[in-house]
Amino acid sequence: MLVFLDAARFIKLRGDEFDREYMSTMVSDHKEDIEKFPKEADNVKDPDVKKFAKDQLPILKKHLELAEQTQKQVSGSGK
User: Fold this and answer.
1) Is residue 17 part of a domain?
2) Does residue 2 form part of some domain?
3) Buried b vs exposed e over 54-65: b needs ≥16 C-beta within 10 Å?
4) What is the rounded distance in angstroms from the CA atom of residue 74 to the CA atom of residue 24?
5) Which of 3, 16, 34, 43 is deepest in the core (most CB within 10 A)?
């Protein structure tokens, strides 16, 4: 998973505002990856790449879960 952050957008943010925006980006990015990962893996012929994709999907889902928990905390609803 590669995340390309819009540096111009983030460089202006500070403190809690940065945290909220960053975590929002992490949650949406992980959701997008989880949606695309299996579809892309199905189109790959290399069995090693297919295995890699299959093995990584549970990790991506766990990362999403953690990102959502953190997002709740930084948004104030997790306090």
Assistant:
1) no
2) no
3) eeeeeebeebbe
4) 10
5) 34
How far, in whole angstroms, is CA 43 from its chain's centroid?
22
Question: Taking the C-alpha atoms of 38, 44, 45 and 46 in order, what is their torsion angle to the nearest 10 degrees?
Answer: -90
State pLDDT tens for residues 62-74. 999 999 999 999 9
User: What would you report as the CA-atom Rg of the chain, rounded to the nearest whole angstrom?
Assistant: 15
pLDDT digits (tens, 9 = 90+) for 23-60: 999 999 999 999 988 888 888 899 998 888 889 999 99
Structural domains counted in the chain: 1
Q: How many CA atoms lie within 13 A of 22 on its CB side?
A: 14
Q: Which residue has the tokens 């579809």?
A: 39
Domain holding 77, by residue range, is 37-79
Confidence of residue 13 (pLDDT cuts 50, 70, 90): confident
7 within some domain? no
